[in-house]
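Retro notes, structure queue

What went well: the backlog is down to a handful. What didn't: a couple of records were mislabeled last round, so from now on we paste the full input next to the output in the thread. Example, using ITA2B protein from Fregata magnificens:
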Amino acid sequence: GQEKLTCNPRKENGSHVVLCELGNPMKAGARITVDMELSVSGLEDMGDAITFQLQLRSKNSPSPANASVTVPVEAQAEMELRGNSLPATTVLPMSWHRVEGSRRLEDHGIKVEHVYQLHNKGPSTVSGVTLRLAVPNQLGGRILLYLLELGTEGGMSCTNPPGLNAKQV
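Corresponding output:
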């Protein structure tokens, strides 16, 4: 029949050990199958597998039987990118023209700020994420968006694209 085992975690010689009592007495030649479900945290930087050492001890056997089980580890995380433009809509009058040579921002158009937020929805943490964002800055050989500056928050780094604030506005 199937029975639930009672297992107790403890530390032994600096290792985390889970001790499960299978029962006593056991008949000679008995075969037992044990299915265990383990929940282990902090595996993000453990590589692609974790190995568990198993040891079967019996009071009737002079030496314990040892085995190891290697389990593949795969971290999963769902990322979500959110974006917003401020102002949401921009309209330039037909009569407006850019002032060549000016270093004043308002002579080059209306300032539009694009804000992107990258969220980790879990369940695992992530590191080493690269986000590549392509911004159309020209249309028909004419400047559509003049890329003025890039900024980040939250310990992220950003690589400036070629031509960022080329006219030093």
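Agreed that this is the format going forward. Reviewer comment attached to the example: The mean pLDDT is 81.
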